[in-house]
Amino acid sequence: MKRNFMSLFLSLTFCIAFAQTNADHSNHLTFKGVPLDGTLEQYIVKMKQNGFKHLTTKDGTAILQGDFAGYKDCHVGVSTLNKSNLVHKIGVIFQDQDTWSTLSGNYFDLKQMLTEKYGKPSNVVEKFESKFKREDDASNMYEVKFDRCKYFSIWETDKGSIQLTIDHNGVTSCFVKLLYFDKINSATVKKQAIDDL
What is the DSSP secondary-structure string of the chain? Predict the structure, then answer.
């Protein structure tokens, strides 16, 4: 019995280590440990296994909802080019925020975690483009809502790029957005688009 238990334990340990090594050695950028590769349907299955709920699919983009990087109820868009059905881009929209302190807090928290994982960003812009002096939290949110807040950080890796931004949808919704672009599959999608020209 003890021998069988030890065999089972070693087998499970090997399987888990192999699965982690397999994801780490993929040539594709990963999201929640899953390489950005394969068909949309395959990727949805993998995201469901990671605790995400599939909400809808339209025009080559699946929308899922779940927890990500310590943040609750994020919306995740998994994109393909309809013609190829090859996953190449993932976008995460974090919950709307009503104050600049919480919005910028989310941005800087995520930026710090991404920097720990991927190193220093290759490009950073963090400024307001308004001529008016901002004196309080409400003034900063006003600038976000009217597209005068330029906050973004970009990490370029061997496997693709990652972009973190403060964004908005009209004047009612302000949020942090995180985009992952797989290098190999983005190049494939671009080649197909160029072939169409």
Answer: -HHHHHHHHHHHHHHHHHHHHHHHT-SS-EETTEES-S-HHHHHHHHHHTT-EEEEEETTEEEEEEEETTEEEEEEEEEE-TTT--EEEEEEEPPP-SSHHHHHHHHHHHHHHHHHHH-S-SEEEEEE--SSPP-SHHHHHHHHHTT-EEEEEEEEETTEEEEEEEEEETTTEEEEEEEEEEHHHHHHHHHHHHHH-
